Amino acid sequence: MRVAIAGAHGQVARRLGRLLSGRGDTVVGIVRNPEHAADLESDGVTPAVIDLESASVDEVAEAVRGADAVVFAAGAGPGSGAARKHTVDHAAAVLLADAAERAGVRRYLLVSSMGVEQARQGTPRGMDPVFATYLQAKLRAEDVILPRTALDTVILRPGRLTDDPGTGRVTLDHGVEPGDVPRDDVAAVLVALLDAGKTDEVVELVGGSTPIEEAVAALP
To answer: Can you tell me which residues the record assigns to a coiled coil (predicted)?
Structure first.
C-alpha cells in the first residue's frame, strides 16, 4: 500500500509512518519544515516538503499521485493563534481533499477531534476562544470533505491524546463518552482503518477494552 500523510512530522503521524513503513508499505510524508525531512527518512518515510498553507492544488496533487490513500494528520498546534486554526485545521485539510480528487486518490482519512459538535453553534460557554476556533475549523473541514462523492472518507475523532504506551484496546464507535487515548493507539487504529477499507464513517476513539482490529471490524 502507498499512503501519503499530511503533517507527517506530528506525533500521531510519525507513529503512523513508522507502523506503515515498518511492515513494508510505501509512505510519503508531507511536511512544511525541510529540517524535518531527515527525521522522516529515519522512519522509512519519503519526505515531500510542501507548505499546505501556501501550496497549490497541483503541487499537493503531484505529491499524492499514485497513493492508495491520504491521511490528514496536520494541525496548527496548541501554541498557534486562531488564524492558523483556519489555515491549517480547515483550509489545509480541504486542500488535501482537492488534491486527492485531482490525483485520483479516493481514500481520505481525516484525523479530527472529539468534541467538534460542541462548536457547531459557536463558542460554548466557558470554552477558551482559540480552542473553540480549533473545533470550529475541524468541524468545517469535516462538513466540506465528508459529502464529496469522489472521496471515500473516514473521519476519526480521538479523545484527549496522551503519550502513554498503547494498549491495543480501544473504544471506537459513534457517541462515545469523552476520554483519553494514547497516540500509539490512534496510529494503530488508522492502520486498521486503512487495512479494512472503511468508508463514509465518522467515529470517536478513546481508550477501552476492545482489541483494535475487532473494534474496526465492528464498524458498519
So the answer is: none
Q: Which of the two residues, 185 and 123, has the higher pLDDT score?
A: 185
pLDDT tens sequence across 8-66: 999 999 999 999 999 999 999 999 999 999 999 999 999 999 999 999 999 999 999 99
Q: What is the CATH number of domain 2-217?
A: 3.40.50.720
- Tell me which residue of 9, 6, 8, 15 sits closest to 162, measured CA to CA: 15
- Alpha-helix residue ranges (DSSP H) falling in 112-163: 129-145
Q: Which pLDDT value is given to residue 23?
A: 97
Beta bridge partners of 207: 170
- Distance, CA of 29 to CA of 175 (rounded, Å): 31
Other Cβ atoms closer than 10 A to 175: 6
C-alpha cell at 28: 510519503
Instruction: Please identify every residue annotated as catalytic.
Output: 134
Q: Among the residues of the chain, which ranges form H helices?
A: 11-22, 37-42, 57-64, 82-84, 93-103, 129-145, 183-196, 212-217
pLDDT bracket for residue 91 (50, 70, 90): very high
| Domain residue limits, the chain | 2-217
Closest CA to 40 of 49, 193, 65, 1: 49
Secondary structure (3-state) at 2: strand
